[in-house]
Design brief:
two-stranded antiparallel sheet, alpha/beta, 11 helices, Rossmann fold
Length: 300
């Protein structure tokens, strides 16, 4: 499943909320954890209302303390400080994925000021846009970072396109490792939720559009049933569902209804903040969901 997990930390307690999930995955897979801090050039005096790590010495001392946390007990944990101050922390993280070749980057996402600002312009969003390594985003839990229930269900959204099936093997592998059920989901939009040329066509030909969407839903059911049959035959307990509505809202709603422990989905990781947010289902799922979200970069 995973051999090496990279966990960037900025020195704040909020960033450490990714550690329990990273530790759980590493423990199950027997993977190495590398905790990393990138020294930021002209760093602010505080981050998330906590003192910022402003030099390599402070960062090394901090990571040495983190290694001794009980949540990491028994794991093989390494640390790395990028000592030369950088302006672009996200780019530095992605440069380190080329150096360390991790299977997964695990990061906390946090922020205030509305859903759009949660990731807009932040390091987590940029890492997704720049990188080719899967990224697991973990939001701090209201109940506390160390409260970890057993995982029982993973939601895997698909859209029927072969390129998006690239996220499915990883979802199935995690489900098998943790004896989870897998729930495949495909969302067919309603006419009012269409965009671009499809929206224009729905205005000109509303009846034909409704018929097409109903046919799409029927086709989605057949497609999902075939994938579920294959996965069940491989030993992964899999159910499937074809829903109607806005894709991002339906994914979040389904994950909440089923009390899912993780959502695994593909993303094209469009570079640039505006490109990422414009029409991106993944970005809107991130903004609305409290469930850990594993994004698998897709390249056509």
């Amino acid at each position: 499943m995973f051999h090496h997990l990279l966990v960037p930390l900025d020195g704040s307690r909020l960033s450490e909320s990714s550690l329990p999930t990273a530790a759980r995955l590493a423990r199950k897979a027997g993977a190495v954890l590398t905790l990393m801090h990138v020294v930021e050039r002209h760093a602010p005096a505080a981050v998330h209302s906590e003192r910022h790590l402003v030099n390599a010495g402070e960062a090394s001392a901090y990571l040495s303390e983190v290694v001794r946390m009980p949540v990491l007990a028994g794991l093989r944990v390494e640390t790395h400080v990028h000592e030369a101050g950088v302006r672009d922390v996200a780019k530095s993280i992605n440069d380190h994925t080329a150096e360390f070749t991790p299977d997964l980057v695990v990061m906390s996402i946090h922020g205030t000021g509305g859903a759009r600002r949660l990731l807009f312009g932040t390091i987590a969003q940029q890492v997704i846009g720049l990188g080719a390594t899967p990224v697991l985003l973990v939001r701090p839990s209201r109940e506390g970072a160390e409260q970890m229930k057993e995982w029982t269900l993973i939601v895997a959204p698909l859209d029927g396109k072969p390129v998006h099936e690239k996220s499915l093997p990883l979802a199935a592998e995690i489900a098998a490792a943790f004896s989870c059920r897998l729930h495949l989901l495909m969302v067919i939009p309603n006419p009012r939720e269409l965009t671009g040329s499809e929206k224009a066509a729905s205005v000109l030909m509303p009846a034909a559009t409704r018929i097409k969407l109903e046919m799409d839903r029927a086709g989605a059911g057949e497609y999902l049933s075939a994938r579920a049959t294959e996965l069940n035959a491989s030993g992964v307990k899999t159910a499937c569902e074809a829903a109607r509505g806005d894709p991002a809202r339906a994914i979040v709603r389904t994950a909440r209804r089923l009390s899912a422990d993780m959502v695994v989905m593909g993303t094209h990781g469009r570079a640039g903040t505006e490109a990422f947010w414009e029409g991106s289902v993944a970005a809107r799922v991130i903004a609305r969901s409290r469930v850990p979200l594993l994004l698998v970069p897709l390249r056509d």
